[in-house]
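The protein record quoted in full:
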Amino acid sequence: MSTFFESFSQHGESSLKWPYPIKYGEETELTTDVLVLGGGPAGCMAAISAAKRGLSVIVADKSHSKRAGGGSGVDHWVNCPNPASPVTAEEAIEWEVNSYGGYANALSRYIAARESYDTLLEIEEMGGKIRDLNDEFKGAPFRDEKTKFLYAYDYKNNITIRIWGTTFKPAMYKRCKKLGVKMLNRLLVTSLLTEDGRQGERVVGATGLNTRTGEFFIMKAKAVINCMSFAEGNWLFSSELTGLPYFHPNIICDGPAIAWNAGAEFTMMEKSSPAPAPGYQLPSYGSGNPKNTWYPATMVDAQGKIIPWVDGKGNPINDVSERTLPAEGQKYFGDRSLHPDHRYSHLVDDLETRIRNGEYMLPLYADLTDMPDHERRVIWGMMVGEEGRTKVPVYDTYTAAGFDPKKDLLQSYYMLGGEPFPGMWQHETVPYFRGRGPFASPGGLVTDWNLQTNLEGLFAAGNALYAGNYYSHAAATGRYAGRKAAEYALTSSDSVIDRDQVTAEKNRVLAPAQLKSGMDWKELRAGLCRVMQQYCGEIKNENLLNLGLIWLKDIRENILPNVYAHNPHMLGRVIESFNLLDGNELIINSCLARRASSKHLGFTRQEYQEMDPPDWHAFVTTSQKNGQITSDKLSLDYSNPISLNYERHNSDYKGYLSH
């Protein structure tokens, strides 16, 4: 085979030599007990959990597992019953079920609530920092002096713990290496392998592409855990404009695509919500706002006039300390909940009207200057700095530029465009720009109480699960799935890889690299997003959705064979775009399966005007076998009785909340 330099120069693309050896066509075969797909917090915790039971484990990630997934940090550990909180595990999932009209994954959320504190302590034992050991916030109202935990948002119920999340992934990665886990980095997983190569059968491994060398990997396993996150980027793409295309631009559709093609069952894939225009989002958490990482920041207008706050019941509040306490009659704050029992204190609901009427002048600013010192320091320095995407681009960069929260204000882009929180400011979106996560509690894989999918041998954790979200949920369910997958692997029979399935997949993956010219991956991805914008936008009907499928079929048959990759990295981008096409088909077929509109799912069918009719107030599931797509309904309370079912499947588990 010619060197990449020779090949690249012949194409007239560049005179630069590719810095890695090109191994197109070469294969590496590996065998393991447990194969973990995705090296984020769910994947690393799954690997650790399985390896601690003495099994061989492989982790495959298309980036690097030391910082993959939530590797850049996290500032808070949500829904975590702990010794300083009166909230039970059963109560901890209540706000999500209520807030989303029942469309919440009570099963996985309950697992996380039962085991998130244990998971946090295990991460601390690995080297992650979870306590104020240096007494930086001694005496603050959000600090528990006995444990040195710092709590966030709700200072009465203490259900959310502030953490130094930049320390977490390096600690997990180091523990994986210590336990002998084989870490395959820069490996894009391209497919799941099934028994006899048949769709809908037992999963026996996976294939992957090294995006630096082009080498093809064949991985055989007794159990496989999908930790590859949700589908995203289906409607939004902008590679040339400034700003981010969407909140998680590193997430495409790889995990859902490979599971869909293998025959796994999905639900809530029809759900979507408005999202800011691609290319116009500012750095996340890098503009002034009173949400999430910046909570409970004071907001002022251009003339320094303070924007008033109200409690979760809508009553005016004046003191900063009242922003962190539930209103009378409220149970506790539920993260981003709009339900009156769980809604945070917030800026007045009619702020936009007041701005348009001239009561407050744009632009608005976050003002930490007059806030209590402990609140200012915990927002700017811990929360901003430990949250993913803030340490370098926001905290370090702004500090180097001279930003001082004791005297400086930070501009907000509310009503100016570019606000980076999907769903916060609906007027800054257009109907055909849609998003699926992270705040929308998007669709994903359906599992049983072992976190095993409908496909034997395939488990799921973290954001691969439907209605997934939060670092704590990912880590806790990953830890749980690793335990269950290990139990399965210890008793499962040996499997055989179907060579015809492997050969077909290898030919598919490497085909774009064999061309000398063709369409770029960016053009393909932009076209796929345009199909979704036009035929699967805010308002849907059967004709529109079927037209979308026709367009996707045409692209698959007539465009995909002509998409070109001039190096292994670009080949990875091409395969991601192929996965996006598969994900689009999954979403559109899921939309066709729900023959009713739903406010809770952001789903409007013109032929079915009634919102959430009783007959359709259920999960709609979608899967395929032997190329035939099927759908079904699943009761919203299928996981009940939830605590009893957990106990039945975890009678030998000993943890903080064990009975």
Notes: Residues 1-12, 422-427 have pLDDT under 50 and may be disordered. Residues 270 and 590 are 5 Å apart (CA to CA). The domain at 502-619 is CATH 1.20.58.100 (Methane Monooxygenase Hydroxylase; Chain G, domain 1). The longest strand covers residues 27-37.
